[in-house]
Amino acid sequence: MKQFVVIGLGRFGFSLAKTLYELGHDVLGIDNDEEIVQSVAESITHAVKADATDENALKALGVRNFDVAVVSIGNDIQSSILVTLILKEMGIKYVVAKANSELHGRVLKKIGADRIVFPERDMGIRVAHNLTLSNILDYIELSPEYSIIEISALPAWHDKSLRQLNMRTKYGLNVIAIKRNGNIIISPNGDDMILRGDILAVVGHKDDIENIEKHF
Q1: Residue 81 contacts by C-beta under 8 Å, 6 or more apart in sequence?
Q2: DSSP H helical segments within the chain, as ranges?
Q3: Strand order in 146-152's β-sheet?
Q4: Among the four residues 5, 104, 186, 207, which has the most C-beta atoms within 10 Å?
Q5: In what helix (H) or strand (E) does residue 68 lie, and over which residues does it extend?
Q6: Cα separation of 104 and 102, whole Å?
Q7: Nearest 5°: CA angle at 199, between 193 and 202?
Q8: Among candidate residues 113, 108, 111, 115, the one with its CA nearest the CA of residue 130
Q9: Which of 81, 76, 92, 73 lies closest to 7, judged by CA?
Q10: Are 43 and 18 within 8 A, CB to CB?
Q11: pTM of the predicted structure, to 2 decimals
Q12: Of 171, 166, 174, 116, residue with least CA distance to 142
């Protein structure tokens, strides 16, 4: 279990924080709007009203002890930049910052943000899954029920065929492609072998996706 702090609980921030919490992680949400804080309080571990541009307020909340900080402040670019800078100076190892434009993103990168996300391209749910799982390389929500994930082949899968692994029965997942050394095997058959370094693209129901995430 990791500890996440999400600063800014708008649509993107709330989606991200709620998904992280549902994946079993400890999530502190911070926003300067009391109404927003109250509305999300039951969906995450803790929700607090605070001014995130106040370094002392962040220190009082113990933010420096969190594994990952996500800056998802809305349209206030100045606050977004300031908070990102404060977090990096506090020693947070991994800071993810939401950018509203390419220029905003470049500024955030220059002041130390470890990852930049653009809400138009990166849904909060997708980012949450990517942040929490080292084996999950990408996550695409097809519908509320079904998703595609890209996953690094586990050592236990190496040199075994898809028929031997029987992922459909064991995990409820269908392998739709194998990425290997820059090439893609589309619709692999049961005799295709999984090799070290392979990346599998699989599709499955959200419950089966969550089960395999917990397994990892």
Answers
A1: 107, 108, 111
A2: 11-22, 34-40, 55-60, 77-89, 102-110, 124-132, 162-165, 167-171, 206-215
A3: 136-141, 146-152, 199-205, 173-180, 183-186
A4: 5
A5: strand 68-71
A6: 5
A7: 90
A8: 115
A9: 73
A10: yes
A11: 0.65
A12: 174
**Of 168, 179, 170, which is closest to residue 201 (Cα–Cα)?**
179
Give the span between the Cα atoms of 169 and 172, in whole angstroms.
Answer: 6
Alpha-carbon distance 171 to 211, whole Å? 8
Sequential pLDDT tens for the chain (216 residues): 789 999 999 988 998 899 888 888 899 999 999 999 999 999 999 999 999 999 999 999 999 999 999 999 977 899 999 999 999 999 999 999 999 888 999 999 999 999 888 875 555 656 666 665 555 556 666 666 777 788 888 888 999 999 999 998 988 988 888 989 878 888 889 999 999 999 888 888 878 877 876 666
How many Å apart are CA 18 and CA 125, to the nearest integer? 8
- Angle at the Cα of 175 from the Cα atoms of 174 and 179, rounded to 5 degrees: 165
Which residue type sits at 146?
Y
Supply the angle between the helices 77-89 and 102-110 in degrees, to the nearest 10.
20
